[in-house]
Design a protein that fits this description.
The chain is of the alpha/beta class. The protein has a single domain (7-168), classed as FAD/NAD(P)-binding domain (3-Layer(bba) Sandwich), CATH 3.50.50.60. The chain is 37% helix and 21% strand. The protein contains 7 helices and 8 strands. It has helices at 16-26, 53-61, 65-71, 92-97, 108-120, 137-145, 150-156, and strands at 7-11, 30-35, 48-52, 77-80, 88-91, 103-107, 124-127, 158-159.
């Protein structure tokens, strides 16, 4: 018997895509995450990402907070450099406390790996695929009008019939 849960296509397997897929699966959807590159960009690369208050809470709800905390950077001092002004060094903890009581700085690649792993068992990943060229023209126009974001993809490509996107066969 075919699975009757609503199917959702999500474009992007870096940070937002796996988080969205994780929660949609928890709420009864069948998400498929597609990624344009053939290999996920995970691991210590990328730039540092700051997670504040509600995002730290979200990581806790997903059960990945221990891994996120383990992978956090060890930045102690942030140096502010401005043209024609003196350089200012501020302890990272002091600067982040001005924004939120809860703060974690982590490399984007490390965060992407943790989030991918959290969703991997419940979510289908299709790597090396860019869905836009394979969409039917009306859906492609609608998605392009929304800017091609993951949120627009979610809105534009909710699947009720598997054959709506033949490229995912």
């Amino acid at each position: 018997m075919p699975d009757e849960r609503p199917r959702v296509l999500i474009s992007g397997a870096s940070v937002a895509g796996p988080v969205l897929a994780y929660w949609l699966h928890r709420f009864g959807f069948l998400p498929t995450v597609i990624e344009r590159v053939a290999e996920l960009r995970v691991g210590g690369g990328g730039h540092a990402v700051d997670l504040f208050g509600p995002v730290v809470e979200l990581m806790d709800w997903m059960g990945v907070l221990p891994e996120v905390e383990q992978a956090r950077t060890q930045t102690e001092v942030i140096t502010l450099v401005r043209p024609r002004a003196r350089t200012v060094e501020v302890p990272a903890e002091v600067l982040s406390e001005g924004v939120s009581e809860r703060h974690i700085e982590i490399m984007r690649g490390d965060l992407a790996k943790i989030l991918y792993e959290a969703a991997r068992g419940q979510v289908e990943y299709v790597l090396g695929m860019w869905v836009l060229p394979h969409l039917p023209a009306p859906l492609r126009r609608r998605l392009t009008a929304f800017g091609g974001s993951a949120a627009a993809m979610l809105d534009a490509a909710r699947l009720s019939k598997p054959n709506e996107l033949p490229a995912l066969g």
